[in-house]
Structure of starch synthase:
Amino acid sequence: MLMATSISPAIPSSPSRRFSILTTPNAKFVKVPALCCLRKNGEINGLSRTPSPMDSGGQNDGEMSLSSNVELEMKNNEIWRLFKEAQQNILYLNKQRLKAVEELNEANREKQLLVDKIEQLEKETRRASGKDNLALCWALLLRIDAMVLGGMISPAEATDLRRMVMDRKVSVANVFSDMLQKRDAELLAELRHFSEGSKKKGFHIIHICTEMEPLVSIGPLAPYITGLSCALQRKGHLVEVILPKYASLDLDEVQGLREIEAESYSYFNGELHGNRIWTGVVYGIGVTFIQPLYFSSFFNRDRIYDYPDDFERFTYFSRASLDYIAKSGKQPDVLHLHNWETAIVGPLFWDIFAKQGLGNTRILLTCHGLDSQCLEEPDKLALCGLDPGRLHRPDRLQDTAKTHLVNILKGGVVYSNKVVVMSSMDSKGRIIRSSHGLEHTLALHKEKLLVAPCGFDNSTWDPSKDNFLPVNYSAENMRGKDACKVALQQQAGLSEHASFILVGCIFSEVSDFELEKLKKVVWNATKGGAQFVFMANGAVPTINRALRSFQEELEDGNVKFFYRYDEVLSHLMFAGSDIILCQSFDDPLLQVPLKALKYGAAPVSITSGDQNFRYSADHDHEITRFSQFMRSTFGNMTLSQALDEINNNPSTWKTKISDAMMRDFSWDAECCDIHVSAYTAVKSL
């Protein structure tokens, strides 16, 4: 019977040497008898050699057979040894491969952790560093404010010093970067020594508002304040913001937050009440926070809006802002007000504060929607020092429909020098005709009315330098967009190929009507092979429920859903999509259509062909450049029409996409230009 021989576990150094015996050209192959194993009961197993017919022969034949069998047995042993050695080698190589794969995965995990750590460190460095020019200038400006409130300098000298700082901000930042820790008296001496006088260049604008990104963000006002302010300062204007000091403020991005050690009082309900004044710098913008002492509960709440005493809360803040501006000696060119919450500043300014050294200041009101207007009893106007009898009149604050009440937003329109309505798509005439009861007032003041589109932050949203993308690209070189599409398909679990048409959808809310339209659009498009990726805003439970129901009803492998908003994924969705489905082209909160154009994805409305574009021809010249562009390109296009054009006219489609990417719809472009023209107009009055 064939006996098992021990096999050495040693691994040959050369793979070619391991199998040399099997592949030698001179090797002779012999016929091997069948082998079998005999068990104790005499049954045959398959490993011992079965008797051959010659085994029963004579002794000589037996000796020859024995010699032959020994030779065969040795060869069989050698074959089994080589087989088992090869088997061990294969197992060893497989272990090495698995080990290499694990090491590669670990290296990728460490790389991602390192990238995340670097991004976090860069963010912390940007947050901690206050030595960029604008931040340093604002630190100086806020110290000047404190000097005025503390009585160290006069308002007139403070105005000269502020102009000097802004007009020579580069050299001022270099000179004073190491002086901010000095005492006020020493810093003032250095400022006076440095001051050589300067000619006024840009406008000085103060926003009095209730939101600012990233400190407090509820609606479209927050990104607008930050985006427009940064754009204005890049063009040489001095911009600052005054906010209530909410208990819920996110102060992580505030540089140099400090309390001004000076008494600050404001009038309310027949008395003067103390306030704490805080200052800091956010994204290079000087920010002042007003914190009431006696009425501390006004802004120490869970929500920002929708309380029964909202009129009292924001009227107190508006009056306190004006009292602070007057006492600090500021003489801004424009006080920029926002929505009804600070519209009361208009009548307050002209009835009380224009006579307190602010005679050269003008008022601009921005409305981010005309549906919220705040109607109140006229007597409440006396809380902030206004005369109800003078203002409760049809040509001032009296509401048109409910004549026994005053309309605060109407008062802002009447008492402002210019009014800007934020709307990317509507014409001026359409806004006037559908202004929720303000039709008569806006028609009467239509010469002061301007329409401006929202913008987006093109320093964060730019595919040519977006750090969240696997490959960057631009209108001049679009090759990276295909790589982004494959990366998005991979992350969503879709079939990976750049030839598929991929449609992205980022929604903050969805109505029942829009959901039914969406279902029909998606079903029709998937029949033609289109892929869809949906991402919802996880902060809104209703949209998650609606999309989950849609997913269960759809059951299509070409449609994938993400139920929590993810910043990195959102960048990849814009970059990897050919088309972005939009709920509206007027999207001041998420700015989806604007970002889509920048990333080379066509914005297509779920309800294309609806009222968005039904304007009469005589109002076309009063719409924004963005609206004009959308009407001439993707505005009236349905999803099926867009898919057909991509498939049937790819060169025409690519030309449209390239042209869209090269246009500038950021805060720095049309939005900023319209506001500068408004500031220029009011200063010439």
Summary: The domain at 202-250+330-452 is CATH 3.40.50.2000 (Rossmann fold).
